[in-house]
Amino acid sequence: MSQKKVNEYKEYKKNRREILAKQKKKEKIEKAAAYAVIGVFCAGVVGAIGVTLWNEHKAALAARPNYKSESYIVGDMNGILEEESDSSEGETSEEGETTSSEENSEEETSSEEISSEETSSEEGTSEE
């Protein structure tokens, strides 16, 4: 062996504890980093699956009919009352129009009857 190799071996032997400690520390750091990366990846996959399942659950709940008495009755009562008031107003105006048209037709009929009676009475008096 050459003198250079002998000197390197002696130095390695002298600092072996420190060198091995550095190597072990480096290996531990690399191992911890690998576990951290794997853990983050697994957490991401599990989180994505969980979010997907949660969204499907929420969609299924939203698809169900709502039988709460508050939202079901109160909302419909407002709609029913508005519809009744709208339809009753429409009926009133239609009835009013019908009534006024009936009155007009009755007046026309009565005026025609009166004029026909007058005409017939005039004819009757003129014949005598």
What does this structure look like?
- The chain is mainly alpha-helical.
- It folds into 2 domains: 1-64; 68-128.
- Helices cover 93% and strands 0% of the residues.
- The longest helix has 59 residues, at 69-127.
- The radius of gyration is 52 Å and the shape is rod-shaped.
- The chain starts with a helix and ends with a helix.
Secondary-structure blueprint:
Elements: H1 3-14, H2 16-63, H3 69-127
Helical content (DSSP H or I, runs of 4+): over 70%
- Integer-rounded radius of gyration: 52 Å
Distance between the termini: 172 Å
Low-confidence stretches: 93-98
Structural class call reads mainly alpha
What does the overall shape look like? rod-shaped
Q: What's the number of structural domains?
A: 2
Overall pLDDT score: 76
Taken as a percent bin, the fraction of beta residues is under 5%
Question: How many helices in DSSP terms?
Answer: 3
N-to-C order of helices and strands? HHH
Q: Using DSSP, what is the number of strands?
A: 0
Let me know the largest β-sheet. none
Oligomer: single chain
In short:
The chain is mainly α. It is built from three helices and no strands.
